[in-house]
Amino acid sequence: MSIPMTASSALNAQTRQDKASSGAASRYLCFGGFQLDTQRELLFKDGNKIRLPGKVFQTLVALLDKPGEVVTREVLREKLWPEGTFVNYDANVNTTVNKLRLVLGDSPDQPAYIETIPRLGYCFVGSVERRGELLANFTPARVTGAVSGVQNSAATRETELAETVSASSANHAWLGLRDKAWAAALVLLCGVLIGMGIVLLVYRA
User: What is the pLDDT of residue 115?
Assistant: First the structure.
């Protein structure tokens, strides 16, 4: 026997469905060359998976949820450590943010993503896009340009190395010829001295 659905239960079911749809629509947070899967706690960069430690993931989510706004150290402390946890909060917040910067390849001096707000907290300075699905070929111009720059730099280094090796080989060849010339001159000098010695001995006799 089916139980008729009341207006209240129908409203609750609709609310849960709306929340599920909203969560699915914003599952992935995209910024720079990264995509963050908020359900699986995975970070993707150029198709590569990066698994984040729990507190590093929570810190990143807290910053991405409020791009352009200051997330205070107190908010991070309450989010990362439950009440009653006895740790050095300031040192641990610093360590967690530094780990996150290391993962993102970011710098506190020239931040591309996480800016330190002195005596307050941190601010995510990049743009964030929420998506419902993972982009298969997510290669922004910023990342592509960086890769291209690395490739060009590597090609330049290879050319310089080849030129250095070529010059070194030429130097070695020249040094080899010079050493042979010195050896021949020394042998000739010895021969001349020996010949002069023999002549002097003959005349004295």
Answer: 96
